[in-house]
Amino acid sequence: MTRIEDAILRAAATRVLRRNDRGRVVVAAEPDPRRHHRWHWEATLTALGLARVDLPRAITEVRALLAAQRPTGMLPLSIFDEGRATGPGPVQAVGLSSLPGQPIAVRAILDRGRDNGGADLAAAEEFVAESFDALLASHRWFVTERDPERTGLIEILHPWESAFPASPRWDGPLSRSGPHPRATREERERWLLEQMRAVGWADTAMREVADFRVRDVIVSAVVATCADLLAGLADEVGRTDVTEELKEDAARFREGVAATVDPRTMLARDFDVRAGVWIEPATVAGFAPLLAGGDAELLAAQRAILLGEDWMGHPVLRHPLPPMVSPSSPGFRRRELWHGPIWPPVVVMLAWAATRDGAWDLRAVLRDAMLELLSDHSFAEFYEPITGEPLGVHDHSWTAATALELLG
After folding, report:
1. Is residue 9 a contact partner of residue 52, using CB atoms and an 8 Å limit?
2. Model-wide pTM > 0.85
3. Helix (H, G, I), strand (E, B) or coil at 52
4. How many other β-carbons are positioned within 10 Å of the β-carbon of residue 24?
5. Distance CA 121, CA 118 (A)
6. Interval 236-285: pLDDT, tens
7. What is the tens place of the pLDDT at every residue in 344-357?
8. Cα–Cα distance between 39 and 93 in angstroms, integer?
9. Cα dihedral value 90, 95, 100, 104, nearest 10
10. With 59 labelled, which of 5, 326, 330, 386 sits at a CA distance of 20 to 30 A?
């Protein structure tokens, strides 16, 4: 893309975020009047884009997320707008955890503040100091309550707690839960919520009763990355008393993720705690080590696979971008989210990790291909990988944020 095309795309993405801004929150897309909640991770992704164009607004967005923190340190999966807490589904999920990615957004806010200088720098530094204890409490909740056996892997208790709620990764564990053998996926998901509600959403009791207990490699990889980022932030705000703790946690979870890699495929695997078995369906989550960082040999092997003919280099793909499931897999469904389409948040996180690790070849391919895909300005929720057709909701905030983050 030319500089003019980049500038046009940046302006279009910025307009999407402005249009979806409701003052206190940026909604994911033009809202359904029945939906009075946001998923926490949606807002975290949006904050990355906001930091590129309106730093004070990015700070407001993340501050609102952290304001929902529980006394235990847990940050909830869903957040209700305008103080409303009525409606289906998500209200029942108030005891489920969000993804642990907030330090990525806070680090971005500080970096953009330094880029901008002046009032933005002062506001960013003040916000980092203000938010550090909340970020630390959330991190400690994850590494204690969700890794009780210190495996270096985070347990999730419901598919919604993962980045990929309807992924084929969860078909096996879900099939072993539910009120009866012929239950639908939705019935099994509701069953899990009722199990946890029955014990008052208490952390230890939830683990004991939940039919679904899975060690999730993506969540674990993000914990590893966030521990490293928090260690750096700790030094910057004068909290050197916790730096070593955070570095040790980062190493523990990097090692935990690396230990899941199948030596036959070199892809990471989730683990079904209840059944005591590895989860075999190969999805883009298999590249969790790239997000976690760590062993250079493993990361190089994974990059080669990701760029190879089963993934980004598959001949049927319109753009060299990672679909959620390899086109070589019998489970590939190119129009069904989590089973085949291109999902922008995955691309931006892999590009972010490639930048961190100096994997410039991978970053360049991801960046250029994703910006080319987004050049239609649809900013769709996800994309058909063979034709590039925009799918799902258009003018989506996380896709606009992806464009802004990749444009830099």
Report:
1. no
2. yes
3. helix
4. 11
5. 5
6. 999 999 999 999 999 999 999 999 999 999 999 999 999 999 998 989 99
7. 999 999 999 999 99
8. 11
9. 60
10. 5
